[in-house]
Design brief:
The protein has helices spanning about 5-15, 25-35, 55-65, 75-80, 85-90, 100-105, 110-130, 155-160, 175-180, 230-235, 255-275, 285-300; strands at about 20-25, 40-50, 70-75, 95-100, 140, 185, 200, 240-245. By secondary structure, it is α/β, with parallel strands linked by helices. It has one domain (about 5-300): TIM Barrel. Helix 1 packs parallel to helix 3 (about 55-65), helix 3 packs parallel to helix 5 and helix 7 packs across helix 12 (about 285-300). The longest helix is centred in the middle third of the chain and has 21 residues, at about 110-130. The radius of gyration is 19 Å and the shape is globular. The chain starts with a helix and ends in a 13-residue tail after the last helix.
Length: about 325
């Protein structure tokens, strides 16, 4: 049965038994940048920590016991509210990244301002996290399936050479370039495509792509799993030599009561997704609202910036 910690152990053991190396996705991002992509068969794993950092700690411990290091993308509030758990995960040798969601947070701002506010708060978060001792090298967007905006807009704007200097915020620009722009080696939700992996296996929608609206990789096949045997068949297929997995710790549990609650909650959420009929994740932006936001922000480049922007994160 999937979504138990024991079944996650079995997944990791199956990967090793089938001759695959295991990396954190941040290692692959660094290898892409340096032109040193690993040879042979491998699985790259990332974890988007959305709600329960305690479960992330359990999953990190399971991996550490097997001498495996993966990448954990942590939402902003957990760096404040659960810093001890984040430190323990990092202390095991796992890579710590930032799971950002600033566009979702600021989507109710006027169209011309949402990009400015989101980028400013994104920068502020990374600088705050840096002061806590975590020097973030990679990021990954949070994908709220019930909204029609795309958090990845932040990274698209940050990478625009003409955009950063148009922002009105109080941060030292050289510090921003040193600790944000130049330090970031990649975005696990943007910079990986079907050219890098043969297959993407996210647990979103409980391994059912039908209920996976935003957790996708451009031009990369996505797998569906019903049980551990499905996973074993994927590993045995020699056409799948480079596999990318996203395992949300929030969906995995260690007792029957929690598993049943998670199953009921995910089933209800999947029904809502289907009822709302949200579009799938493709291209740079999702949906008309996200495109409208992005177009308005790009149009505003060169106009007088908002002097009232709040630069705090």
């Amino acid at each position: 049965m999937l979504f138990t910690f024991n079944s996650y152990k079995s997944l990791l053991d199956c990967i090793r038994e089938n001759g695959f190396a295991i990396y954190g996705i941040e290692e692959i991002l660094a290898a892409r940048r340096d032109g040193t992509i690993p040879k042979g068969k491998y699985v790259a794993i990332r974890h988007d920590v959305d709600y329960f950092p305690g479960r992330a700690l359990t999953m990190a411990t399971i991996e550490s016991e097997r001498k495996i290091a993966t990448t954990y993308y942590i939402r902003r509030r957990f760096f404040d509210e659960n810093i001890d758990m984040v430190q323990r995960i990092g202390g095991m040798g796992h890579q710590i990244g930032y799971h950002y969601e600033e566009v979702d947070t600021h989507q109710k701002a006027p169209n011309m301002q949402v990009g400015r506010d989101a980028v400013g708060f994104f920068i502020g978060s990374l600088l705050d996290i840096d002061r806590l001792g975590f020097h973030i090298r990679s990021v990954c967007a949070h994908g709220n399936p019930l909204t029609d905006v795309d958090n990845r807009q932040v990274m698209h704007l940050l990478r625009d050479e003409n955009y950063l200097d148009k922002l009105a915020f109080t941060y030292d620009r050289e510090e921003v370039k040193t600790k944000v722009s130049k330090r970031l080696i990649g975005d696990a939700s943007i910079d990986i495509t079907g050219d890098d992996f043969d297959l993407y296996i996210p647990d979103t929608g409980r391994f059912n792509p039908r209920y996976n609206l935003k957790d996708r990789i451009d031009e990369c096949d996505i797998a569906r799993l019903s049980n551990l045997d499905d996973f074993k068949r994927i590993l045995a297929d020699d056409s799948n030599r480079r596999i990318y997995m996203n395992m949300h710790p929030d969906r995995w549990s260690g007792d029957a009561a929690t598993w049943l609650f998670d199953f009921a909650f995910d089933t209800a959420k999947n029904f809502v997704k289907r009822f709302m009929g949200k579009s799938g994740y493709s291209g740079k932006l999702v949906g008309a609202k996200a495109q409208k936001h992005h177009d308005a922000v790009i149009k505003s480049i060169g106009e007088k910036p908002d002097e009232q922007q709040d630069s705090r994160s």
